[in-house]
């Protein structure tokens, strides 16, 4: 992976984006990589989880994000069950890379997906892994909670990350795991780790755009830092717009022909 061969220890910045304006803002802000995550389902499409997201939906949004950020490394998530077999994974990846303009794909799981990751990378598809809390199968993990607290759980996550690296993954996302486990995995891997809710020791960090700018709901997980109360600002602006229309203040002379 040309762009990420020297990513180890670089503290790279990943951010999700799902459309033209958000990807454009991410690129203008100078992030190192954009992820068209299947968090799309929750923060943009209003689904209760990432499970319903389809390949067509990810593809549609990958194309838009690519148009907004033509110069930035772009990873697209493989949706739930789109990589259940190598054939399916290859054809999904083919569409995301060729039609969508993605540079890489990401999929969830450890040892159980290593063979798929190996098949993809052997075919020439850059793949990012994702272990710890894996939202597509969160119900099997007991919900959206910290993973890897118990030693045997931590061991499984570490083994998963090592298996992904051995299978050719160019990097691995660590989601909602203890900071010390993320540190150990980061030290053991020669490819870069990307943390979310995984503490400060991963090589890179990722945040969901709508979480970072305050556009998603009232619920804020502990690992999210809101850099902007965007929802509040936008709501207030729209209230002003509605008020001005109702009071005959908009449009004014300067907006009229
Ligand atoms: O879908 C997503 O946004 C993700 C990141 C949180 C890693 O997978
Ligand atoms: Na995802």
Automatic annotation (TrEMBL):
Residues forming the catalytic site: 175 (proton acceptor)
Any one GO MF annotation of this record: methyltransferase activity
Biological processes annotated in GO: methylation; pantothenate biosynthetic process
Localization, UniProt: Cytoplasm
Reactions this protein catalyses: (6R)-5,10-methylene-5,6,7,8-tetrahydrofolate + 3-methyl-2-oxobutanoate + H2O = 2-dehydropantoate + (6S)-5,6,7,8-tetrahydrofolate
Enzyme class, broadest EC rank: transferase
Entry-linked CDD domains: KPHMT-like (cd06557)
InterPro entries in alphabetical order: Pantoate_hydroxy_MeTrfase, Pyrv/PenolPyrv_kinase-like_dom, Pyrv_kinase-like_dom_sf
Keyword terms of this UniProt record: Cytoplasm, Magnesium, Metal-binding, Methyltransferase, Pantothenate biosynthesis, Transferase
Taxonomy, superkingdom: Bacteria
GO cellular component, one term: cytoplasm
Record-annotated membrane-spanning stretches: none
Keyword Ribonucleoprotein applies: no
Free-text cofactor note: Binds 1 Mg(2+) ion per subunit.
Pfam families xrefs: Pantoate_transf
EC number(s) reported in the record: 2.1.2.11
Pathway assignment: Cofactor biosynthesis; (R)-pantothenate biosynthesis; (R)-pantoate from 3-methyl-2-oxobutanoate: step 1/2
Main location: cytoplasm
Entry binding sites for 3-methyl-2-oxobutanoate: 38-39, 77, 106
NCBIfam families membership: panB, PRK00311.1
Function per UniProt: Catalyzes the reversible reaction in which hydroxymethyl group from 5,10-methylenetetrahydrofolate is transferred onto alpha-ketoisovalerate to form ketopantoate.
Assembly with partners or alone: Homodecamer; pentamer of dimers.
Family, as annotated: Belongs to the PanB family.
Family annotation (PANTHER family): 3-METHYL-2-OXOBUTANOATE HYDROXYMETHYLTRANSFERASE
Name of the featured protein: 3-methyl-2-oxobutanoate hydroxymethyltransferase
Chain's gene name: panB
